[in-house]
Amino acid sequence: MRGLVGLAMLATLSAAAPAFATGTEEQRAACTDDAYRWCNDYIPDAYAVERCLRAHIGGLSPACRKELGGGRRPKRG
Question: Where does the UniProt annotation place the signal sequence (predicted)?
Fold first, then answer.
């Protein structure tokens, strides 16, 4: 059931958000959860979602940060 919900969310985001729809499968897979976590209010506006994700770059998953060009966070220490 969880996989079906995730697939439905991915399909919705892909269909409603052209920036994600034109991205690679890896980009969509990396950022879909973060988009729903941080930027749900901006869906389906793909450009607003991307701006929101970039604004929350420090809280995104490492995979999504990488896809957005944010790379890894520097280690503290």
Answer: 1-21
| Averaged pLDDT for residues 30-44 | 94
- Cα–Cα distances in Å, from 10 out to 44, 59, 69, 77? 12, 20, 21, 37
Structure tokens at 50: 């991307």
Query: Do the beta carbons of residue 53 and residue 34 sit within 8 Å?
Result: yes
Q: Where are the domains of the chain?
A: 2-67
Q: What proportions of the chain, in percent to the nearest 5, are helix, strand and coil?
A: 75, 0, 25
The pTM of this model reads 0.61
- Check pLDDT > 60 for residue 73: no
64 alpha-carbon distance from chain centroid: 6
Do 63 and 28 contact (CB within 8 A), yes or no?
no
Query: Is residue 10 pLDDT above 60, yes or no?
Result: no
